[in-house]
Amino acid sequence: MVIGQQARKAAAAAECPKKVAALIDLVNLPSNLRGFVGQSQISRLHCFIRVWAHIKSDNLQDPNNKNVVNCDEKLKAIFLGKEKVELAELPGLVKLHFPKGLK
């Protein structure tokens, strides 16, 4: 089963190389995100992974609604000062800190 998943991922990457590159290319981070991540360069994918790890380690998901994240001060700094963020909003809010790729 794992081989089938790997083949699908490879096929998707071959079809959309620019989209995959936008996720994995290293970029220089703005100061507020640099302070959160602790690095000056990181890929968008790894930045999202760090944000998610912070949410899980600090138990920031709402216990009554797991689709909502209660932002602490660190997350408020990178999520436009929002008190609560839905999980579906997370990728878009992280993406705001990364430059739009050239077409």
From TrEMBL:
<dbReference type="InterPro" id="IPR019835">
    <property type="entry name" value="SWIB_domain"/>
</dbReference>
<dbReference type="InterPro" id="IPR003121">
    <property type="entry name" value="SWIB_MDM2_domain"/>
</dbReference>
<protein>
    <recommendedName>
        <fullName>DM2 domain-containing protein</fullName>
    </recommendedName>
</protein>
<feature type="domain" description="DM2">
    <location>
        <begin position="22"/>
        <end position="100"/>
    </location>
</feature>
<dbReference type="InterPro" id="IPR036885">
    <property type="entry name" value="SWIB_MDM2_dom_sf"/>
</dbReference>
<dbReference type="Pfam" id="PF02201">
    <property type="entry name" value="SWIB"/>
</dbReference>
